[in-house]
Amino acid sequence: MEFEYLLRIIIAGFCGALIGYERKSRMKEAGIRTHFVVAVGASLMMIISKYAFQDQTNWHNLSLDPSRIAAQVVSGVGFLGAGMIFMQKQTVKGLTTAAGIWATAGTGMAVGAGLYVVGGGVTLIILIAQILLHGRITKLVYPKTVQLTLCLQNEKDATTRIKSLFHEKNISIISFHAEYTSKEMSEINVEIFIKMPSSQSIDQLFTLIQEEPSVKSVEIY
């Protein structure tokens, strides 16, 4: 019987690795190893919760609740996911990855409970949803937020021209911070957080900025 339990753990780890591979391919914080370990651990905890106390059933006046350990896994993985959420330049990062960790734990628990079809099905649903929602469908729904770091020559109205350039292309500036990068004040370092139309790509934005002669370098996050 314990070999079947090990098989469940292996299947759960495989499902977690699939989800982790999709996250890793997008350069996210948690990748294959993290999702694999979470799924394997959740599956193990679920098996312990269901089967580890069967030898105690002959005890009189003993009440067992197989859902207790499983419930603790759900809340415990929530803390693990919270560690992947961070703030970067007025933007929250890692929410999807944290939710993925939580869902991966649920997948592992399902397989650990013997619900192979449910666990495998949820894995496919998560993968398909991630692929679709990272594709063109998302771009048609809402604007994109982008962080830029520009190095400008300290010319007259250089920052004003940058702002006008964005305004002409219907790009909203959320935050704008400029400071001199040297004592000679020959260059200006500008950090900009913008919201651009969904129809406009990062490549188009990069080309647009390079058209401004005062721009010496561009970094897009």
TrEMBL record:
Primary residence: membrane
Pfam families named among the record's database cross-references: MgtC (PF02308)
Family: Belongs to the MgtC/SapB family.
Naturally occurring in which organism (per UniProt): Anoxybacteroides rupiense
UniProt entry tagged with the keyword Kinase: no
Keywords: Cell membrane, Membrane, Transmembrane, Transmembrane helix
Membrane protein topology class: Multi-pass membrane protein
Organism phylogeny: Bacteria, Bacillati, Bacillota, Bacilli, Bacillales
Designated name of the protein: MgtC/SapB family protein
